[in-house]
Amino acid sequence: MDLELTQIQKDILYALITLHKKKSGGSIKGEEIAELINRNPGTVRNQMQALRALGLVEGVPGPKGGYRPTSKAYELLSITKPEESIAVPVVVNDTLLEDLSVEEIDLPSISNPEVCQARIRLLGDLRKILPGDRLVVGPTPVNEILVQGIVVGRDDTANTVIIDIEKIVALPKDTVGEHMSSPIIMIDANAKVSEGARLLAEKEIYCAPVKKDGKFVGILTLDHIAKAVAEGKLAAKVEEVMRPKIVLVEKDTKIREAIRLMRDENVRILVVTDRGEPVGVITDQKILTKLAPEQ
Fold this sequence. Notes:
Elements: H1 7-22, H2 30-37, H3 41-53, E1 57-60, E2 66-69, H4 71-76, E3 90-92, E4 95-96, E5 101-106, E6 117-123, E7 134-137, E8 145-155, E9 160-170, E10 187-188, H5 193-203, E11 207-212, E12 215-221, H6 222-230, H7 238-241, E13 248-250, H8 255-265, E14 269-274, E15 277-283, H9 284-291
Parallel strand pairs: 10-11, 13-14
Antiparallel strand pairs: 1-2, 3-4, 3-7, 5-6, 6-9, 7-8, 8-9, 11-12, 14-15
Helix pairs in contact: 1-2, 2-3
C-alpha cells in the first residue's frame, strides 16, 4: 500500500487498533486515544478527519459512538485482524503484560558474528517497556517459539522494541504421553526413608511419587532424603518427610503446558493420567532432554 502517513497519524492508528482489540471490537472515543498517546483530544479529532478520508477509520454515530479501524488500516500497518489472530504473550521482568501482543519478530543481525538482536513489533502501549528490561515473547501459535533477551532500544515510530537475544527456544509439539516413563516407579507412604533412598539409588532417579491406600499422596525427592539424613530420620516413614503434593496431567497435554504447570506448581515431576487413571510420569529432566537433544 502506497499511503504515506505522518508519525502522529501512525500513533493514532496504533492506539485505535490497540484499544479496539482491548474492547473486543467496541468503538473508541477520541479522548481515549489522546490519553493513550499523550496528545490533545483536539489534535486527535483533527487527524481523524484525514484518516477517515483515507479510508483507514470509520466513525460510529450515537452516544456510545466513536471510531473503529478499517481493514485497510490493518493492512497498512501489517497487523493481523483480531478475528484472524491469536495473542502472543509478552512478559516483561517476569510480569505478563496482557494488553501487549507480538505482531512480528525480525532477526536483522543473524549473519553478524558479534551481534545477535531481534526487532519485535508489538501491538499495545510500548511505553511500559524500557531499556534494560528482560523481555520474553511467545510461544508463537504455529511453531511455539520463545524469544528471550534484554531490551536495548525502542522504536516508537514502528511500535518496535530491540533486544539483545539471550535465548531462542522452539517448544516441542509433542504430548507428555509420548515421552512419559512407564510403568510408574512409586514408593509406599509407610516405607522407611532408607527404603525410599535405596529405591531412588537403584533406579537412578531424582524423585518418585508416594502412594497410600491406593492413591498418590505426595513426592519423595533426593532433597527430602538428604534433609532426613541430616535430621537423623532415616528410620522415619516416607510420608513424614515427603512433599504432600501431587500434580496430575492428562497424557494428551502438550509439553508446553507441562512446562507451565511445573513452573506454576513448583514441581519437577508430573503424574500422567489416561482419563484419570495414572499411567506414567514425566520429569523436568525428560522435558529438558527433549528441548535440547544431543547434537
